[in-house]
Write a structure and sequence with these properties.
A seven-stranded mixed sheet has the order 3-2-1-4-5-7-6, sandwiched between helices. 45% of the residues lie in helices and 14% in strands. Strand 1 (132-136), helix 6 and strand 2 (154-159) form a beta-alpha-beta unit. It starts with 5 loop residues before the first helix and ends with a strand. 37% of the residues are buried. It is of the alpha/beta class and 340 residues long.
C-alpha cells in the first residue's frame, strides 16, 4: 500500500476545485454532478449508493482523481450558455425551498428519526412525557412535531423562515398534532422567559447564526436548571471540513434552484438536504471541540459526547479510522448537556 501523503492530496483537491470553478458557468450540470460525487465520498458510508468500504484517505484520493478525469472529458461536450445573474443567498429562502422539497416527498414525519436519536443518547422516551420542549431553529418543524407526537405537554418550535414555519403548521394541522406551537424569531434572542423549558433540542442550527456562543447562552437562559439539552454543531479541521468549504466557492457560481433541479433529475432523495445546505447557506461556522467543552465547563454544564453513532455519522469512525484527525478533524459535535 502506498504511503499516505496528505499534502499531495490537498493539492489534488485544490486543482479539482479550480477546474470545477472554471467550468461552473459553461457546464453547470457537469459540476453539480461532480460536486455531489465529491461530497458524498467525503463520508465513509453512503446509505443510498452502495460501494466497497475504503479508508477516508484512499476513498477521497480515488474520487478526486476520477472527477478530474470526468470533468476534463465531459466538458469537451458542447453546452448551452446559461445566463446566470448575480446570486444572493438567504438562509431562510434556501431552507424554505429544501423543506418544500421534503414536504412534496412526504418526508417531514421525523418521529422515527427522533426516537432513534434519543435511544442512541440513552434517554428513556418517557422523559418527554408532559414536558415543555423547545426546538431551536426548527426549520420545517419536523422534530417539533415529532416531540408533540411523543407526548410532550407542549413542543415549541422557533425559526426565522416563514416557509418552514408554514409547512410546520400545515403538517401539525394535517396530522392533528395539537400540542405544538411555532414562533418566528431570531434564535439569538428567544421570546421566552428564563428557566422555561424542560428540554431544549438544537440540531445543526447555531453554526449558521454567525455567533454560535451567543446562541448557546440563549439556550442556557431558557433551559431550566437541572434539565437537559441536545446540541449538534459542525466541527473543524481535516480534509472533510476544508473540502466542504472549498466546494461552496464553486457552487455559489450556480443558482441553487438550478442545482436542486439537477439533483432531482439524477434522483437524489429530498432528505439529502446536506448537499445544498452546505453549498449555499451564507453563514457556516466551524467549532473547535476543546473550546466548546471549555465553554460548557465555564457555564456550569455537565456534558456527554455522543458516541453511539450510526454509520452515516462521523462519531462512528472516531475509534476506527487511524487517520481520523487528518481526514475528519474534530468530526461532528453532538452532545447531551445538563444545566447544573
Amino acid at each position: 500500500m502506498k504511503k499516505k501523503n496528505f499534502k499531495i492530496l490537498k493539492s489534488k483537491i485544490s486543482y479539482l476545485i479550480q477546474l470545477s470553478s472554471s467550468k461552473a458557468k459553461s457546464h453547470p450540470y457537469i459540476i453539480v454532478i461532480a460536486m455531489h460525487e465529491l461530497f458524498r465520498n467525503l463520508y465513509h458510508f453512503d446509505p443510498y449508493i452502495k460501494s466497497k468500504p475504503a479508508s477516508g484517505y484512499n476513498r477521497i484520493e480515488k474520487t478526486v482523481e476520477n472527477l478530474i478525469n470526468f470533468i476534463n472529458y465531459s466538458c469537451k461536450i458542447g453546452s448551452y450558455k446559461q445566463n446566470f445573474s448575480h446570486i444572493d443567498y438567504d438562509t431562510q429562502d434556501l431552507f424554505g425551498k429544501l423543506w418544500g422539497e421534503r414536504f412534496k416527498e412526504k418526508k417531514l414525519n421525523s418521529k422515527a428519526v427522533l426516537v432513534e436519536l434519543l435511544k442512541r443518547l440513552e434517554l428513556n422516551l418517557n422523559f418527554i412525557k408532559n414536558k415543555k420542549v423547545l426546538d431551536i431553529g426548527c426549520g420545517s418543524g419536523r422534530f417539533t412535531n415529532a416531540f408533540g407526537k411523543l407526548g410532550a405537554k407542549l413542543s415549541v418550535g422557533v425559526d426565522l423562515g416563514s416557509e418552514g414555519l408554514r409547512l410546520a403548521k400545515l403538517f401539525a394541522k394535517n396530522n392533528k398534532i395539537k400540542n405544538t406551537k411555532f414562533f418566528k424569531s431570531n434564535v439569538l434572542k428567544l421570546p421566552f422567559k428564563s428557566n422555561t423549558f424542560d428540554f431544549v433540542f438544537c440540531k445543526g442550527v447555531l453554526h449558521h447564526t454567525g455567533d454560535t456562543f451567543a446562541g448557546l447562552l440563549e439556550l442556557k437562559r431558557v433551559l431550566k436548571t437541572g434539565s437537559k439539552a441536545f446540541i449538534y454543531l459542525y466541527g473543524q479541521g481535516g480534509l472533510f471540513w476544508s473540502t466542504r468549504k472549498l466546494m461552496r466557492k464553486v457552487m455559489q457560481k450556480i443558482p441553487h434552484d438550478y442545482t436542486i433541479k439537477t439533483l432531482n433529475l439524477i434522483g437524489m432523495p429530498a432528505r439529502r438536504t446536506i448537499f445544498v445546505d452546505s453549498w449555499y447557506v451564507p453563514i457556516e461556522d466551524h467549532i473547535n471541540k476543546k473550546k466548546l467543552e471549555s465553554w460548557f465547563k465555564k457555564n456550569n454544564f455537565s456534558f456527554t459526547k455522543y458516541i453511539n453513532a450510526k454509520k452515516t455519522e462521523l462519531e462512528y469512525l472516531e475509534s476506527k479510522e487511524k487517520d481520523f484527525k487528518e481526514v475528519y478533524g474534530n468530526g461532528e459535535l453532538r452532545y447531551l448537556i445538563t444545566k447544573l
